Amino acid sequence: MFRLESKRLKREFKNTDGNFYASQIVNSYSSMNFIPDGNGSEFVVRFVDGNEFSSKGLRVENAGYDNDVLVFTFEEYMGVQVTLKYWIHRDGNTICKQVVLNQRTDEAVDYVDLESVGIINSKTHFSVDVVEGGQISDFHAMLGQPVYVDSLFFGCEFPATENRIIHGNATVRYYVGHSVGKNFECPVTVMGAGPDNTLIGVRNAFYEYIDFISTPCKLRFQYNSWYDYMKKITEQNIMTSFAEVYSQLKSHGAPKLDAYVMDDGWPDTKAGFWSFNKKFPEKLTNVTKLCKGMDSHFGLWLGPRGGYSKTDKIAKRMQRAGNGYLNKQSRDICVASSKYVEKLGDFLVDTTKEFDIDYWKLDGFCLKPCLDEKHDHAVGGYEDMYFVTDMWHKWIALYNKLRRAKPDIWINMTCYVNVSPWWLQWVNSIWIQNSDDVGFSKNIEKQAQVDSEITYRDARYYDCLCRRALQIPLKNLYNHEPIYGNEAHVDYTDEEFKKYIYWCTVRGQALNELHLSVNMMNDSKWTSLSQAMNWQKDNFDILKNASFIGGNPEENNIYGYISWGKNGDGVIALRNPNNEETSLTLTLNKLMGAPESLKDARRFNVYCKTLSEDDTVYSYNDKMDLTMKPFEIMIFKIAKER
Questions:
Q1: Model pLDDT, residue 398
Q2: 2-202 architecture in CATH?
Q3: What's phi and psi for 454, nearest 5 deg?
Q4: Which residues of 340-373 are buried (b: 16+ CB within 10 A; e: fewer)?
Q5: pTM here?
Q6: Residue 123 has pLDDT above 90, yes or no
C-alpha cells in the first residue's frame, strides 16, 4: 500500500502482484469521499492510427518513493513505457500527477488522457461544454477549464488541454501529434479539494489554488491612448495627453497611475518586422523619460497577429523578409511560427530592457489555426489541436523569457485566446473574449446612452460567466473600462458619468485602463473619477473576490456583483436594466457568498440615490428587501464600520 496525503486530500494506491489499483479519494476538508468507478483509468495513450492502451491490465514493473514523489513504472506496451508520478503541490493542499512516456517506435501519438476519472458514483459534477458564439472556434474557446466532481476539482497546468466530462469520465486530454521519444513529460495535472460539493464551494477552493500559482494581480490604474487618438498618435500628442492626465488626476487627489500606455499607431507597418515608424524618431526615449518624471511607468501595445488592419499585408512583408509567415486561414501573421515567436520574444525583451517597459498589451493572437504544412509548426489533429498545442507551448516559452528579463512586468493577453485560468501562471490578465471594446445594448428602445453601455458590458459578463460558465477569477478579467474618449462617441452628463465610473469599480477587475480624452472631462467628472478610484483602492481586498449574480441584463433582469473579504466585510452592487420599477429580496447566505460569521453588520451607501442609511443590522441568513427604480444602481458596503 502506497499513500499520499496533503492537508486536504488523501490517496492510496495498491500494487498487488503487479496489478495497479487506485483507491477512493478522501477529502478531509469536506469529510466527503469519492470512489472512481471502473470505467476510468489513470491514463490512456491513443495513437494516430486509432490504436490505444490504458493503465487497465498493465502490470507495474517498479513502484516506490523517490524522495517525496510516488513513482509507478508500467511494463512497455505498443512500444511505449509509461511512468506515473504523484506528489503534493507547493500549496500543501493539492495533489499533482504527471505522465511520462518513453517510446521506442516512431508511431505518432494522437493524444494522452492524463486523467480519466469514472464519475458514475458522483452526486454532483460540472464541466464547461462547447458553447457557440465566441470569437475563436467554439471548441478552442472552452480549452483549459477545470472539471468539478463532488467536492473535488481536476485540471492541467497546460492551459490548452481538453478538460471535460466525456462518456462518463472526467477527462483531461492532451493532444500531441508526433512520436514522443525518450522521457517525454506530459503537462502536470492537479486534483484539489473543496469544503463541500456546491459549485460555489468547489470554485472558491479552485480559485484559492489558482491564486497560489498565479502571477501577482494587484490593483492597477493606467491611462491608455486608444480612444483618445487611436492610430493618430504622435510623440507630441501622446506626451501632451500623458502630462494633462497626470496633472488633472494629481490635482483632484486620485491614486497615482501605475503606467501610461501607448496603444496602436507606433509600428512601421511597411517594415519586415516590428519597428517604430517615423512619428517616433527617438523611439520611446522621450515618452518613457516623461513617465519616469511623473513617478510612473510606461506601457506599450503590440498585436502579435499584426494588429487589426491590413494584417495580411503586414504578414506578407514579414514572410518576404524571412521573419514569419502568412496564415492564409485568418489572413494575418502566423503566430505559431517558431521563427516568428522567437524573433518576437527577442524584440519584446530588448524593448522592455531598453525602455524599462512595465506593461505589455499583447493584443490579438490566433483567430484560426494555420493549416500550412510547410510552416515551422505542427498541423492536424482533432479540431487542429496539434497546431494549438504546439503554438501555446511556444508562447509559454516566450512568456518565461520575458519574465526572466523583467519578473514584475504586467502582461495583458487579449483577443483570440481561450480564457483558461492556468494562463495566469504567465500572464496577469486576460480579455473577456466575447465583446467589442465598447458597445450599446438595445434591450430598451428609449434609454440613456450610459445605461445602454453598462447593460452591454454586463451582458458580456453574463455570457462569459453564466452562459459559458468559464471559471476564472474576475480580478484577472480585462474589460476595457472605463472608456470616455473622443473616438468612443459617448457623451454623459456629470451625474451619468459618476454613475458609470462607480459601476466600473464593482466588477472586480484588477486592471483598470482609463481610456480618456482630457477635452471631454470637466472638474465634476475628474472629481467623480478620483473619488471612485480611491474607493476602489480602499476596498479592493473585497472587490477582487467579485462574482456575478442575477439574470441576463439584456433580458431586463436585475443583476449585480457581490464581493466578500477575508475580514467578513462585503460589497453588494445591484442594477435594474429595465425601464420599470422592480422589487427583489436578497438573502445573505452561502449562495450570495456571505460568510457564516456575518453578524450585526450595517449597510452603508457607496452609490445609492433612493435609500438613506439607517441603523438596521444584518447577520447571516438575513433578508434585504429592495425596490429599484428604472435603470437604478445601488452599491452598498456591508460592514460594522464604514
A1: 99
A2: Distorted Sandwich (2.70)
A3: -65, -45
A4: bbebbbeebbebbeebebbbbbbbbbbbbbbebe
A5: 0.97
A6: yes
